Amino acid sequence: MSQGERRHPAAASLAGMALALSLVESATPAELRERGSRILRDSQGLAWVECLYLEGSGRWLGSDASEARLACDDFRHPYAHAIRSGAPLRLGLVEARSRLDHPDFQAQVAALPAAMQLEVRPLRALDGAREWLGILAFAAHPTALDGLHRDGGFAAFESLLCQLWARLSRHQGERHREARLQQSLAQLNDGARRQALSERLAGDLLGGSPAMQALRGQVVRAAETGLAVLLQGETGTGKDRVARAIHRLSTRSDKPFMAINCAAIPEALLESELFGHAKGAFSGADQARAGLISQADGGTLFLDEIGDMPLALQAKLLRVLESGRYRPLGASEERCADLRLVAATHQPLRERIRDQRFRADLYYRLGQFPLSLPPLRERREDIAPLAEAFVVDFCAREGRDEVGITPAALRQLRERDYPGNVRELKNLIDYACAMTRPGDDIAPMALPDQAEPETPEPAGSHAGDNTTRAVGDLRQALREFEAELIRQRLLHYDGNRALAAESLGLPKRTLAHKCRQLELDAK
Ligand SMILES: Nc1ncnc2c1ncn2[C@@H]1O[C@H](COP(=O)(O)OP(=O)(O)OP(=O)(O)O)[C@@H](O)[C@H]1O
To answer: What is the dihedral of CA 515, 516, 521, 523, to 10 degrees?
Structure first.
């Protein structure tokens, strides 16, 4: 130290300002890490310095210099120990070499002199949620490490590094989200590609009605964006199928698709299913467990029956959507969430908002891209192609010869109301296939619980009414039902046996035979 410096101690401390400035001028977290490492190497004479960042999911440490990723639970590596304990660790290289046999770590420290020590310091933000940022590791002779910690210089350096890092990554996160949104909006204009995708989707989301064509177009658009999608439609309209299609067509398709039905799980369990929990978070939590938000990392999370999500959880979900951060149950640290959310409901959410059972802010956040699925009764032209596809599915599934559908059966199918929508149609076809001999065609008689909108309903047609309860002889009841049905049908077709037979999916001769058998007075 020169005489001048001794006389003016302030000049000595101001010398550090240049280094601090170099850190402050970093434009990105990666640049900051690079500059920070360089300062330690050059000005403190450390032999080896490395600074890794903790990935958003909190499960990996990543390096700016290579593609390498290090699992935070791989305890063959000293970084995993430091991250897990949340405290700095220092150990001799000889000990480290013998105890920690991670191949990358071994390769990194192989060339360093055995007398050196390694110090690994987990770094965390000093403000707000105080989340973990990453790790700073360096090696030097013990005297150099002791010297480093002797005055407050290193502590100030580390504190500045952490503050800048947290601020830069927050800005970067915001910028990324904005850029993704911009990109999403720009992609909305790419017409030809969308058309091709929409046609591809027609093999999966069946139906040629204008409503289904429009829906497929919207699914393609939604998939191109990163926006949250809210699917609204009656039960069985295909919300689950649409959610999966959105994931499959999106850039996240190679990452997981995780789904949960919010109505099917008790409130306490739903929270830990979604957010995961730390070890010991509640009695019985012997192990830490990743929640669906973590498991869907990089992919899509599908929340079915979102209308049934308890209010307290709605608030937490909103926070995930707005900040991209969440905290597992019982955990002290926050995690980053990188997922696309698709939510579905069959309930009118606006009513639930009015009844204060659903948060309006969450509703608008979930519905960045709202999609409405039309009920089957409003697109009757889709019934025949759906029914035919379900017949093919059934036969393939059961390994049976193909069956067809008679025009009369198709006509009846088209006339039904389907409160259970496509699911009801599918179940009905499965039943009808099972009731039809392989190689035959499905006839109207094979359709369960037949409703006849044009003719008065035959007695005993509804399960559970008084007539069915009174049945004491099944064969006799079926004979009566059959006779009544044929009588009604003949009446309806003015005694024309050919038309009545076709409407019932029967050959004319069979109907004539049945009329004789049942002693029906047919004209
Ligand atoms: N457009 C379609 N093309 C082919 N199959 C469909 C279509 N829509 C629905 N399905 C089938 O109908 C059944 C019900 O669909 P899905 O489970 O997606 O409905 P949902 O709206 O999610 O029902 P819920 O609200 O009861 O959960 C499934 O077997 C699904 O494969």
So the answer is: 70
